[in-house]
């Protein structure tokens, strides 16, 4: 896999396919390691080693995925900063679980320090959750067309990419015909336009024949027929 090949490359871009294939294999490895730890009673040693081995490529491919959509890798720095703070808060609360339980049971005096840590950890958890969802959305976004400041498009420059990049660089007025110049139509559009005009001509002819028949039957006077004919012909 390309993500494992570039396990320590933080520069450049990684498309969605590269990122999500890495995530799939990463979780497969973690689940297998966790299963073996349980099966052989290894106390999580293998799982911990797998986690350590995957940290660097995970960070690298996540950074390149952000670059691919034009975002800075600093998003990950902020995300992991709040993750560490959340982890630290949870550890403090766990180590003081007995005292917290006694406070709830009103068998121990209130500890304002622990209450502050609990409230602070709750706030950090909310911020971390929002960041987690934002990064998930970022990871699902398509690659930016053409090059960006982090490198070329990982899929290369196909015709559509070239056209979009040219229009983006040249400005919004490129490709728009002047007001006094008819737009250039493709052969398919020209054929459809000709067919529509032919159908319009046939409809007008049928309507003239209908009015002529009404004139012959005396329903319309010759003057009325001429007026109807002029109205139809004036539309062309």
TrEMBL record:
It comes from the Bacteria. GO terms for cellular component: plasma membrane. Keywords: Membrane, Transmembrane, Transmembrane helix. This is DUF805 domain-containing protein. The lineage of its organism: Bacteria, Pseudomonadati, Pseudomonadota, Alphaproteobacteria, Acetobacterales. The keyword Transmembrane applies. The keyword Transcription regulation does not apply. The chain crosses the membrane at residues 20-36, 73-95, 115-138. Pfam families: DUF805, SHOCT. It comes from Formicincola oecophyllae. Residues 208-233 form the SHOCT domain.
